[in-house]
Amino acid sequence: MKDYAVPEHHRTSPPPLVRSRRGRQLLAIASALVVTLGMLTVTLTAQAAVPPTPTGWSLAFSDDFNGSAGTLPSSGNWIFDTGHGYPGGPANWGTGEVQSYTTSTSNIRLDGAGNLRITPLRDGAGNWTSARIETQRSNFKPAEGSIMRIEGRIQMPNVTGSAALGYWPAFWALGSPYRGNYWNWPAIGEFDIMENVNGLNAVWGVLHCGVNPGGPCNETTGLGASRACPGSTCQSAFHTYRFEWDRTVNPEQLRWYVDGQQYHSVSEGQLGATTWSNMTSHSGYFILLNVAMGGAFPNALAGIGTPTGSTASGVPMMVDYVAVWYRGTTPTPPPTTSSPPPGTISAYSTIQAEAYNAQSGIQTEACSEGGLNIAYIANGDWARYNNVDFGSTRPVDFVARVASGAAGGVSGLVEVRIDSPTSTPIGSFAISNTGGWQAWRSVPGNVSAVTGVHTVYLTFTSGQPNDFVNVNWFVFRR
After folding, report:
1. Most exposed of 60, 115, 193, 322 (fewest Cβ within 10 Å)?
2. pTM
C-alpha cells in the first residue's frame, strides 16, 4: 500500500513525509479528478465467491471472505500487521500515516455476506485505528513463459469530499525480501494494484523499484498512472482491480486494469537490467490489503495535513475476493506454504495468547485492542499451545504483542520453549515498562532452528518479584 512520496511500507529513508506513491505529480492530477466526485446511489452486493477460473488459467490462491459475521479473516491465509510500523522498520510504516493497525473486529472483520470490511475508526481523543493484512505466502511470481494475474473485487470507502480527507485504501504487493529487512525498499519491488486517497473517483496503479530517491522508477513517486472507475464511482460500487506480470513476451511487461480495462503498463525495457533483476529474481511477492489514514499521498493531494476534524470515522473498504491465477506453467509452492496437517495450527499464523491449551499461573482480561489477552504473567508462569506446525523450513524470527506496567528499570524475559516449559528457550526478548498494562508494543525476537510439529510454551522469566507482562498474541515469521 504505498509508495507515494515515501512508500508506506518500505520507504527506506526518511523523507517520511514524502510518501511513496506519487509525489508532486499527483497535485497536477488532482484537479482533473475532482470533477468525478458526484455520489451515485447503487445497490452494493458481494459476489460471495471467487469467479470461475478463466479458460487457460489455473487458480493458485484465493480468499472469498465467506464466513460468519464478526469473525476475523483466515489466519491460515493472512498475517495481521499491527501498530505504527514493523518492528525495526520505518516509523508510521514509512509513509507518515497516523493510524495504529489492530486485530480488533471493530477494525477488521467478515460481514457474513461475503465481504471483508476494513474500517478506520477515530476515538474520542482523536486517535485513529484501522487494519492491515498480508498474505502468509510470499512467493507469488510467474514462471518463465507464463503470466501471473493478481485480482481483487473491492469497493473503496464510500465517502467523498471533506469527510474523506485522509482515507487511503490500498491493494498491493511487496517483494518477499522485505520481510525481516524493512530497509531494502524500493529495490525489492512494489506493485500498487489499487490505491486511492481522499475519496477521489480514481484508481492509481504504480510500480516502485530501483533506488530512493530518483532512479528508474522516479522514487519516491514511482511509475504510475490513474483513471476514474468505469461507470459507477470507485466509492459507490464494487470494481475489479487486476495486475498482470507477463513473462510470455520479450521484454517482459507489467499491466494494470480496472474492470478489465487496461490503464497502465511498464516494460522491462524501461528499466535497467540490474533494477529488473533486483525486483524479479527473488522468490516472489506477498499481497496486502489496508486502509491507512493520513500520510504523504493524501496530504499532497489535499494540500493540508490529513485527516482533519471533518473526516468521517467508520467508513469501511469492502473486499469481495482476492485471487491469484497463472496462465502457462504454475509455480509449485514450497512445502512451508502448504496448509498444516489436520489438527495442527500454523506457526506462521497469528496465535492469540488467550487460546492456550494449558497454563500455569495465567489469567485473562479484556484487551484494549479487542478480545482478551493473558495478563500479569509472573516469573515461572507459562501458557501451552499444542500442535504448532513450523513446516520444513525454520522461522527467521518471531514477534509478540506485549504490554507492561512494571516499575521503571524492572524487566524480564518473554521466552519461547519447545515441548517442555523447562526446555532450553529457542527464542526470547527482554520486556520492561511499555507505558502501561494496555500500552501494547510489538517486539521481535530471534528464533533458533525448529521445524516440524511441536508443543510451544510461552514463558516468562524474571528475578524480580514485581515484574509482570501481558501478552495479546504472537507469530513466527519465515
Report:
1. 60
2. 0.68
